[in-house]
Design goal:
This protein is of the alpha/beta class. The protein contains ten helices and ten strands.
Length: about 250
């Protein structure tokens, strides 16, 4: 069997063969489907995990519930798993130990709480805590440092944060809410870390993102949202009209 340390090395290597494409999973079943489609690694979406458990994103998901989902996903697939731990659920070191014990080998760690950007120093301290916990555990954890400078602002200070996060021990810079090619190209060129972009409708294709210098492509909760939209549409149609058109393949 592949050891956790080997999975961690594999995940790190995949970033050196860009772009690493990650259709985000939200439970064991979706992870199995994504692996079967050919994914070389599985990334979770905290929003999707929260929705799958019937709670709201952005505070509704507890660490215990998140770890339970991680454990099930890791058990369901044979590829490396990297997990979204939001802003670290308070005690970042304890959270990292818990997700490593669950078998994950990478994390997303974001620099905003409650829709408000934290200071870069606060987030750099989180990254250091995560790295120290991983070193103590004996796993070369891949830390994807998410910055929400575009999600909740105009991007000001993104590279200041990128350099601080790099120095603190991050491995990848994740910048959601950016889909225009000129900005992506500039971010990829200026970042001291490999760049992760959250893609979707309106974004450049994976091939175009690779040409722009992007190392990692994910889609956040987009696939989860589409899956639950189908559930709602099919259930509504069945209950109201008694027909099944929503279930027909398009």
């Amino acid at each position: 069997m592949t050891t956790q340390a080997e999975q961690a090395r594999r995940l790190r290597t995949l970033h050196a063969q860009p772009p690493l494409v990650l259709p985000n999973a939200w439970d064991a079943g979706s992870a199995r489907a994504i692996e079967a489609a050919g994914a070389s690694a599985i990334a979770t979406t905290s929003a999707g995990v929260a929705w799958s458990l019937g709670v709201a994103d952005g505070g509704g998901l507890s660490l215990e519930a998140a770890v339970g989902a991680i454990r099930a996903i890791v058990a369901a697939v044979s590829v490396p798993v990297t997990v979204d731990i939001e802003a670290g659920y308070g005690d970042v070191a304890a959270t990292v130990r818990a997700v490593l014990e669950a078998g994950a080998v990478g994390i997303n760690l974001e620099d905003s709480t409650g829709g408000v950007l934290d200071t870069p120093i606060v987030h750099a301290d989180r990254i250091r805590a995560a790295r120290e916990a991983a070193v103590a555990f004996g796993i070369d954890l891949v830390i994807n440092a998410r910055t929400d400078t575009y999600m909740f602002g105009d991007g000001t200070g993104t590279m200041v944060r990128a350099h601080l996060y790099d120095e603190a021990g991050a491995d990848v810079l994740f910048v959601p809410a950016v889909v225009d090619a000129p900005t992506i190209r500039t971010l990829a060129a200026d970042s001291p870390l490999p760049l992760n972009i959250m893609a979707g409708p309106g974004a450049p294709t994976v091939a175009e993102l690779a040409e722009l210098g992007v190392a990692r492509v994910s889609v956040g909760p987009a696939i989860t949202a589409r899956a639950y939209a189908l559930v709602t549409a099919a259930a509504t149609e069945l209950l109201k009209s008694g027909t099944y058109d929503a279930l027909a393949e398009s």
